[in-house]
Design brief:
Number of helices: 3
Number of domains: 1
CATH superfamily: Hexapeptide repeat proteins
Radius of gyration: 16 Å
Low-confidence stretches: none
Order of helices and strands: EEEEEEEEEEEEEEEEEEEEEHHHE
CATH class: Mainly Beta
Mean pLDDT: 96
Distance between the termini: 7 Å
Helix content: 10-25%
């Protein structure tokens, strides 16, 4: 399903295919021979999404563009089922496996792999050809196993997740500050038009 959001319509190349149960919403460009499979969601909430030629967004994946962090997916990229790509850049021939999560400002280089349930945190980089192993976390420019939480947090705290994602400082009242603005912003979907 193609949806106009905030006056912007998706543009899908004539050779691309979007499954009838997928949603492509807003300022999205889907390249030549790309495929958006069943129940995937590609949404330009407030930032553009570009899907390269021959790239595939598999079932139940979410790809979301943000104003400060549009999504750029290079050519020949696979985004696996249930993956979450939010405000990230993926180089050509990158592989994002089932259940992986990429956050705003993340960059995955050409031919790099983020394996099953791997995480690429905000403002973090996976170098060209590098691998984030199953369940591991890329934070800053390092890749660490999940059992090294203290080391991950020491880096992650400085990457400023709340500032990057919400434009707010960390604090006990973070969600109380963020959610009224978030729900008001998302209310614009009431005016969406199915094309």
């Amino acid at each position: 399903m193609l949806v106009e959001h905030r006056g912007k319509r998706p543009v899908v190349h004539a050779s691309a295919w979007v499954a009838p149960t997928a949603v492509v919403c807003g300022d999205v460009r889907v390249g030549e021979d790309a495929r958006i499979l069943w129940n995937a969601v590609v949404s330009a909430e407030d930032g553009r999404v570009e899907i390269g030629a021959r790239s595939v967004v598999m079932e139940h994946a979410l790809v979301r563009g943000r104003a400060a962090h549009p999504v750029q997916v290079g050519d020949d990229v696979l985004i696996g089922p249930h993956a979450h790509v939010n405000g990230a850049t993926l180089g050509r021939q990158a592989f994002v496996a089932t259940g992986a999560a990429l956050f705003p400002g993340a960059t995955v280089g050409e031919r790099a792999e983020v394996r099953i349930r791997g995480v690429v945190h905000v403002n973090s980089t996976v170098a060209a050809g590098a691998v984030v192993p199953i369940g591991w976390v890329a934070v800053g420019d390092r890749v660490l196993p999940p059992d090294r939480h203290e080391e991950i947090w020491a880096i992650q705290e400085g990457l400023d997740f709340p500032g990057t994602v919400y434009g707010e400082a960390r604090g006990e009242d973070l969600m109380a500050r963020v959610m009224p603005r978030q729900t008001a912003w998302l209310a614009a979907h009431r005016d969406d038009r199915v094309l």
